Amino acid sequence: MSVIALFSGNFCNEEAYLHEIQKKTGYRIVKDHELLNRAAELSGTTGERIQGAFSAKPSIFNRFTHEKERAIAHLRMALSEVVVNDEIILQGFSGHLLPKTITHVMNVCLISDIKHRLAAALESDKYSEKEALGLIKKHDEDYAAWIKLLYEREDPWDTGLYDIVIPTDKLSPDEAGSLIKENMSGIVLQPTSRSRKAVEDFQLAARVEASLAREGHDVSVDAREGTAILTINKHVLMLGRLEDELKSLAGKVPGVKSVVTVIGRKFHKTDIYRKFDFDVPSKVLLVDDEREFVQTLSERLMMRDMGSAVAYDGESAIDMVNEHDPEVMILDLNMPGIDGIEVLRRVKQTNPDIEVIILTGHGSEDDKKVCMDLGAFDYLQKPVDIEVLSKTLKAANEKIHPKQ
After folding, report:
1. 28 and 131: one domain?
2. What is the pLDDT of residue 271?
3. pLDDT score, position 224
4. Domain of 300: which CATH number?
5. Any idea what the CATH number is for the domain that residue 85 is in?
6. What would the pLDDT profile of 246-305 be if each residue is shown by its tens digit?
7. For a disulfide at 73, which of 197, 198, 209, 366, Cβ 3.0-4.6 Å?
8. Distance of CA 26 to the CA centre of its chain
9. What pLDDT is attached to residue 345?
């Protein structure tokens, strides 16, 4: 039997269609949240962080952390464990991660026009028209970014991506379920020895990709009959050294018989290959209203492979904490609007795991006591030696990510 990968726009009555498809096929439903939780187990992080892979707006720290790429790698691994079984319905984003070489997968899209989706949203009495339109726009942006990332296509509802596109404003759930069941019985969608082999290749590629991601690498991985094919898509100066390291790591994955590295078509773009270094903090938020100082500090940290972002006032800092989830904050005390002590107080109330290093040129001993009592990691005075600050940052990072 086969696999169904179901992708739907929001406010398209997805659950009713899913219920009918399940009733008519008898297949087991596997939703994104199940795969997110499994991917979180495999990666040692949280489902919420894995779910960030589906967002159109990646973290400002992502070019240092590869967090989105690592999330997708572990999602593929979780998916590879599931797709070995037939008679399943994959609901959500994850189904798009299956390679087209697995031919016994039916890709189904549920969608209708904006007018119909808006009417469905308003029927629930949960949203105003403005709120509903905002949700539709936000979800469609996420869908479009996901499809752009995987297929380099702009339209998430492009009929070329799916075997069946069901207009939910024209076909009822019952009719859609019958249509899918009828098409599932076709010879084209039945598993073949080649398609089964493609599942095995996908499993091996997923294991290799996750293994490399856990070591801080970001490369595309394919597999064919025990050969792992690693594609490097970002420019690197010492290519031979990187290839040797990748081959050594990939060769240790069970099932890998040989490893081949190739240069992808994006290799000569301006992006620079950056291996994620787990020993240094890569999600540092610098908060200071002295723009020249904080920009220079950010550049000096980047030279030490520490990823940083900048906020010039307390209110912007709190917004960035809520939106981008930094792990370490370097915080000035004297700023216009919300001062540093109040920022520290709010951050520790809402995000207590963020380590906050106070760096100020105007603080007193009383200020130091207040900050340390509020949970600051350390209290430093300007001007500060960059090596002292780097050592403090690494200590904060080790507290967040203890070495195993």
Report:
1. yes
2. 65
3. 95
4. 3.40.50.2300
5. 3.40.50.300
6. 999 999 999 999 999 998 877 666 566 667 677 778 899 999 999 999 889 988 888 887
7. 209
8. 32
9. 96
Separation between Cα atoms, residue 270 and residue 248, nearest integer Å: 27
pLDDT digits (tens, 9 = 90+) for 328-386: 999 999 998 899 999 999 999 999 999 999 999 888 899 999 999 999 999 999 988 99
Q: Which residues span the domain enclosing 396?
A: 284-400
Indicate if 323 and 360 belong to the same structural domain.
yes
Q: Give the span between the Cα atoms of 288 and 260, in whole angstroms.
A: 47
What residues contact residue 272 under an 8 Å CB cut-off, 6+ apart?
A: 234, 235, 236
User: pLDDT tens across 93-135, in order?
Assistant: 999 999 999 999 999 999 999 999 999 999 988 899 999 999 9
Tell me if the pTM is above 0.70: yes
